[in-house]
Amino acid sequence: MKKKVPLRKCILTNEMHPKKDLLRIVVTKEREVFVDPTGKKNGRGSYVVKDLEKVEAARKGRKLESRLGFDSDTLSPVYDEIIRLIYREDIPKR
User: Fold this and answer.
1) Considering its fold, how many domains does the chain have in total?
2) Is the pLDDT of residue 17 over 90?
């Protein structure tokens, strides 16, 4: 029997992807926003595809700002962290 792969929708592209191919962005009740690479932190989760070009295009088009309701000053470190995590995953594992 095949194991069911959990799918989530990317808030940048509106496309469904396997959960492991996405990064989770969390907004807490205290209106803090951060990247959750573990996928287990408390808060409202949104998912972003691990694609550098799409993240850069979203930054230029301010997509996260409109989707999450924060200003670009607040989300700039979030974009930086997403990009850092994408680069970190591109390094081949030994």
Assistant:
1) 1
2) yes
How do residues 29-39 score in pLDDT, each as one tens digit?
999 999 998 88
The answer to whether residue 1 is domain-embedded is no
Phi, psi of 53 (to 5 degrees): -60, -40
Q: What tens digit of pLDDT does each residue of 40-72 get?
A: 999 999 999 999 999 999 999 999 999 999 998
Is 2 a member of any domain?
A: no
Domain of residue 60 covers 7-90
Domain assignment present for residue 45? The answer is: yes
**Six-digit token pair at 82?**
């997403």
